Every structure is written in structure tokens, then in C-alpha cells.
Amino acid sequence: SSDLTQPPSVSVSPGQTARITCSGDALPKQYSYWYRQKAGQAPVLIIYQDTERSSGIPERFSASTSGTTGTLTISEVQPEDEADYYCQSADTTGTYVVFGGGTKLTVL
Amino acid sequence: QVRLQESGPGLVQPSETLSLACSVSVASFSDYYWNWVRQPPGKGLEYIGFVYYNGDTNYNPSLKSRVTISVDTSRNQFSLKLTSVTAADTAVYYCAASSSATRFDYWGQGALVNVSS
Asked: Residue B31, SS3?
């Protein structure tokens, strides 16, 4: 299977920790990536190769993968973290890119 | 650093061909894979495909029969053609650069294409 499943929405208060999950059969075999997309803007790569932060991304952003589930964790959430977050990987053969449906993070 | 800029018509008639170009500013064009990703209004991201500098391509199986992505290394540009479009193809089309075949390091600002008569 090549599908990636994310919760449609996650809500947290400022200063709390947000966790966004991404489930897919290919995740044990393929790297996962995370993108942040703010309203009206292009996506930005924030996590690559399961756990690595892109340049300029604060340490508050971290990610992990266990079995078929990847998790993006945002510590000490700030109002500017409000955005849509997408996970991305490949199918089990590594041939085709697949995106999760996206999770809207709301900072209350 | 890589900079990308999409260009092309913002309105396409149903059943016709959508054509977009992506102009790239990069030190070494051959260091990256060149991708198209689209996003229907209010919806998620959908991978369309990539072209490598040597012309090798990879397409989303769900779009493969209608998609052609080509490259012009002399102009540091690559292009997307999507045939037989319908309203379901209305989306923001992004071009993106990948340092590996399965990740997107740099993105253009996106180009909205409406399919409508």
C-alpha cells in the first residue's frame, strides 16, 4: 500500500506540545519527510530522512518513526506554528512519491 | 540555493492541454531532480512527477497517461504538459527541486490554473 494517513486536525494551546501522526505500510522501509505550509504559501521541508531538521528549523521541531507510524512533535508551540503539516514518503518499492492528506494545526 | 518560478496560462479550457514551465536559478542543474506537485483548492498535495537533467522521468501512476514532463538544460527550465484536462485538474501547480528522487527541498511559489469554459 502507498497511502499515508494523517489526522485532519490537531489543536493545542501556546506553550503546549503538538504531536501529528502519519501512518503508512511503507514507513518501515522508506524515509519520511515533513512539510509545513502556511496559508497562501508553498510548502517548506522541515524534516527529512525521518528525523533530520532542515536548516533554519528550530529545535522545537522533531520527528520519529516507529513501525508504520511517524510522528512530528512540536514542543512549546507558538502562534506562528499554525499551519498545515504534510508527511511524505514513497511507496514500498521506493518508486513513487506519496503525500499524507495533511493536518491542520490550530494554536488556540 | 535554488530558486524556481512557474509560468503559464491561468485558465485552460476543458479537454485541452495544460502547459506550464518552471524557470530555475541554480548553480548546477544536474544536481537535482525537477518535480511538479499540485494542490486543488482547499485540498492536499498530489505528486505529479519528475524529470532528471538527462531526460529520465517518473510519473504518478494515476496521471501517467496524460502527463509529460520535459527538460531544457540550455535554458535551465523544465515543463509540464497535462492533456485532456477537466475541472478536477484545477489546482495550484508547484515546481520543486529534489536532491533525491523522493523529497522536495525547494519549491516555487505556485501557479493557479483554472480549468473552465
From this structure: helix
Distance CA B20, CA B10 (A): 9
Q: Residue B41: closest CA among chain A residues belongs to which residue?
A: A40
The conformation of residue B73, written as its DSSP 8-state character, comes to: G
The pLDDT of residue A2 is 55
Q: What is the pLDDT of residues B78-115, one digit of tens each?
A: 999 999 999 999 999 999 999 987 889 999 999 999 99
Q: pLDDT tens digits, residue range A31-78?
A: 999 999 999 999 999 999 999 999 999 999 999 999 999 999 999 999
- Nearest-Cα distance to chain B for A33, in Å, is 7
Contact state of B45 with A99 under an 8 Å Cβ cutoff: yes
* DSSP secondary structure code for residue B8 in this structure: S
d(CA A92, CA B79): 28
When scoring A3, A97, A103 by the number of chain B Cβ atoms within 10 A, the one with the most, hence best to mutate, is: A97
> What CA–CA distances, in Å, run from A97 to A17, A59, B45, B46?
29, 27, 11, 9
Length of chain B: 117
Q: Cβ distance A51 to B53 under 8 Å?
A: no
Determine contact, residues B99/B31, Cβ cutoff 8 Å: yes
